[in-house]
């Protein structure tokens, strides 16, 4: 049987896989390559260089500059889409006859081009972008940025309604429901985020602290860490460690008078892995129910008990593996109960079985190829 040929148009260079979107794209490429696919990868580059690692996985890799600033602005198209157009990209898509997988609506500028009318075209939906930008607008203190986010939200909503893709592959079950209503004649299949984990490595036993981890300069993570420090661990004796990259000064200030709260800034990979393995509870609230929550997968594949809010579980199908709390008091109660529970070998086995249903990279790569074959 000949190899499956496909184009992948990526919104960014997916290597190194060091943030949610890049992680999904890179590990998808890796799994598809291991499944025997012949991949023609097109990357929009704006700050990330060329990668030999991508050359090892793909038949060809091309890089295109993103048209930033005024050159990326359109009165009718979202900036995230209009800034990713390039004639060379179009010519290469035309020249090589293969299905096209657009990563996010960001990369789909040429989806309706008449020269590609007979191709199978799929969109990997990373977010409902209009909703994502509306959420950014509600949290943005700068007036001009808030105006930009609201304009982008309106343009993204309109654009998403009018896209004519044959296949949608959302990474959230909730997004799949939304897209089915929006595009009832297209094919839809929830394909969970691709990720770096092959097997559950959680260690049975007990730890003596709770852990929150993430990029601590990111607004969403700052908000979550401050919620835990100021509202959850403010009057309980259980230790909390907050670990991650470049902690914001608000976080370091907040722990100064808390005897049970510690910040570990910029831990190396070995330290972070040990923190994750040894913690008794991973406490992972979020106040933004969108995007890929890699920290949740990291905790489930490598750590013990996990306490989250419903926003963290949004569209993941992982409710059975977590303890759920949605306000400060319920977090305190859940943490108080779970800290007394040993993480047992049976918990590791159950976790492996449930994660394997939707989060097996090899199975998901096979599903992507099946969809693209039509």
Care to describe what's here?
By secondary structure, the chain is α/β, with parallel strands linked by helices. The protein folds into two domains: 5-195 and 359-373, Glycogen Phosphorylase B (Rossmann fold, 3-Layer(aba) Sandwich); 210-358, 3-Layer(aba) Sandwich (Rossmann fold), CATH 3.40.50. The protein has 15 helices and 13 strands. The protein has helices spanning 20-34, 52-57, 79-82, 87-95, 129-139, 143-162, 173-182, 219-232, 249-254, 269-278, 294-302, 310-313, 328-338, 345-358, 361-373, and strands spanning 5-10, 38-45, 60-65, 100-103, 121-124, 167-168, 187-188, 210-215, 240-245, 261-265, 281-284, 305-308, 323-324. The strands form two sheets. Strands 3-2-1-4-5-6-7 form a seven-stranded parallel beta sheet, sandwiched between helices. It has a six-stranded parallel beta sheet with strand order 10-9-8-11-12-13, sandwiched between helices.
Q: Report the β-strand fraction as a percent range.
A: 15-25%
Reading off the top of the CATH hierarchy, the class of the largest domain is best stated as Alpha Beta
Number of H/I helices: 15
Tell me the CATH topology of the largest domain: Rossmann fold
Number of strands: 13
Helix content: 40-55%
The figure for the number of domains is 2
In short:
By secondary structure, this protein is an alpha/beta fold. It has 15 helices and 13 strands.
Topology:
Blueprint: E1 5-10, H1 20-34, E2 38-45, H2 52-57, E3 60-65, H3 79-82, H4 87-95, E4 100-103, E5 121-124, H5 129-139, H6 143-162, E6 167-168, H7 173-182, E7 187-188, E8 210-215, H8 219-232, E9 240-245, H9 249-254, E10 261-265, H10 269-278, E11 281-284, H11 294-302, E12 305-308, H12 310-313, E13 323-324, H13 328-338, H14 345-358, H15 361-373
Parallel strand pairs: 1-2, 1-4, 2-3, 4-5, 5-6, 6-7, 8-9, 8-11, 9-10, 11-12, 12-13
């Amino acid at each position: 049987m000949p190899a499956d040929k496909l184009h992948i148009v990526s919104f960014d260079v997916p290597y190194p896989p060091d943030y949610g979107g890049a992680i999904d794209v890179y590990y998808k490429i890796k799994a598809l390559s291991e499944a025997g696919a012949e991949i023609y990868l097109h990357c929009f580059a704006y700050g990330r260089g060329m990668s030999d690692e991508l050359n090892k996985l793909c038949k060809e890799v091309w890089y295109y500059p993103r048209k930033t600033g005024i050159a990326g602005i359109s009165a009718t198209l979202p900036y995230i889409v209009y800034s990713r157009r390039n004639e060379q990209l179009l010519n290469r898509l035309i020249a090589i006859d293969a299905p096209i997988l657009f990563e996010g609506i960001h990369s789909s500028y040429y989806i309706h081009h008449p020269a590609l009318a007979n191709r199978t075209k799929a969109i990997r939906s990373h977010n409902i972008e209009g909703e994502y930008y509306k959420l950014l607008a509600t949290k943005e203190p700068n007036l001009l940025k808030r105006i930009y986010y609201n304009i982008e939200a309106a343009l993204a909503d309109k654009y998403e309604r009018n896209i004519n893709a044959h296949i949608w592959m959302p990474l959230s079950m909730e997004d799949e429901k939304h897209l089915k209503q929006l595009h009832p004649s297209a094919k839809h299949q929830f394909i969970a985020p691709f990720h770096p984990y092959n097997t559950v490595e959680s260690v049975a036993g007990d730890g003596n602290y709770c852990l929150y981890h993430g990029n601590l300069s990111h607004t969403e993570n700052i908000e979550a860490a401050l919620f835990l420090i100021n509202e959850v661990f403010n009057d309980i004796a259980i230790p909390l460690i907050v670990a991650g990259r470049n902690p914001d000064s608000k976080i370091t200030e907040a722990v100064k008078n808390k005897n049970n709260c510690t910040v570990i800034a910029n831990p190396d990979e070995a330290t972070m892995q040990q923190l994750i393995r040894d913690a008794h509870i991973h406490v992972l609230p979020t106040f933004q129910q969108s995007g890929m929550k890699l920290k949740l997968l990291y905790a489930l594949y490598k750590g013990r008990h996990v306490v989250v809010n419903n926003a963290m579980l949004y569209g993941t199908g992982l409710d059975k593996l977590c303890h759920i709390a949605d306000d400060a008091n319920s977090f305190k109660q859940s943490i108080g109960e779970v800290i007394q529970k040993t993480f047992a070998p049976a918990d590791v086995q159950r976790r492996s079985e449930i994660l394997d249903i939707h989060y097996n990279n090899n199975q998901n790569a096979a599903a992507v190829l099946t969809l693209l074959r039509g």
